[in-house]
């Protein structure tokens, strides 16, 4: 089984990487971009019996800084 974890900065937290990407896109002529938020995707190959609760615990303890980041989990 696989789990995919999407981690993003929470609303209101400055995203300097996103701002740099937006600036670069504008410099390339893509003026229709109003904002960019950059995050990360973590894909986990899980052993049988490892459920979403275990993945949530991984996120809370290591994969996401829950003070400034939010996360969502997709199980497949």
TrEMBL record:
SUPFAM superfamilies registered for this protein in UniProt: PurS-like
Q: Which UniProt keywords apply?
A: ATP-binding, Cytoplasm, Ligase, Nucleotide-binding, Purine biosynthesis
UniProt-listed Enzyme Commission number(s): 6.3.5.3
Q: Which Pfam families match?
A: PurS
Please give the Gene Ontology molecular function terms for this protein. Answer: ATP binding; phosphoribosylformylglycinamidine synthase activity
Q: Which InterPro entries match?
A: PurS, PurS-like_sf
Biological or metabolic pathway of the protein: Purine metabolism; IMP biosynthesis via de novo pathway; 5-amino-1-(5-phospho-D-ribosyl)imidazole from N(2)-formyl-N(1)-(5-phospho-D-ribosyl)glycinamide: step 1/2
- Organism domain of life: Bacteria
> Where does it sit, as one GO cellular component term?
cytoplasm
Supply one GO BP term.
Answer: 'de novo' IMP biosynthetic process
* Catalytic activity of the protein: N(2)-formyl-N(1)-(5-phospho-beta-D-ribosyl)glycinamide + L-glutamine + ATP + H2O = 2-formamido-N(1)-(5-O-phospho-beta-D-ribosyl)acetamidine + L-glutamate + ADP + phosphate + H(+)
Where it sits in the cell: the answer is:
Cytoplasm
Q: Which residues form a coiled coil?
A: none
Primary location class = cytoplasm
Purpose? Part of the phosphoribosylformylglycinamidine synthase complex involved in the purines biosynthetic pathway. Catalyzes the ATP-dependent conversion of formylglycinamide ribonucleotide (FGAR) and glutamine to yield formylglycinamidine ribonucleotide (FGAM) and glutamate. The FGAM synthase complex is composed of three subunits. PurQ produces an ammonia molecule by converting glutamine to glutamate. PurL transfers the ammonia molecule to FGAR to form FGAM in an ATP-dependent manner.
Q: How does it assemble?
A: Part of the FGAM synthase complex composed of 1 PurL, 1 PurQ and 2 PurS subunits.
Spell out the family assignment given in the record's similarity comment: Belongs to the PurS family.
Provide the protein name: Phosphoribosylformylglycinamidine synthase subunit PurS
Q: What high-level taxonomic lineage is stated for the organism?
A: Bacteria, Pseudomonadati, Pseudomonadota, Alphaproteobacteria, Rhodobacterales
């Amino acid at each position: 089984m696989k789990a995919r974890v999407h981690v993003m900065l929470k609303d209101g937290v400055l995203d300097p990487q996103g701002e740099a990407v937006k600036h670069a896109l504008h410099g390339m002529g893509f003026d229709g971009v109003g904002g960019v938020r950059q995050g990360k995707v973590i894909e986990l190959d899980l052993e049988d019996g490892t459920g979403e609760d275990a993945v949530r615990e991984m996120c809370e303890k290591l994969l996401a800084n829950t003070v400034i980041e939010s996360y969502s989990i997709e199980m497949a």
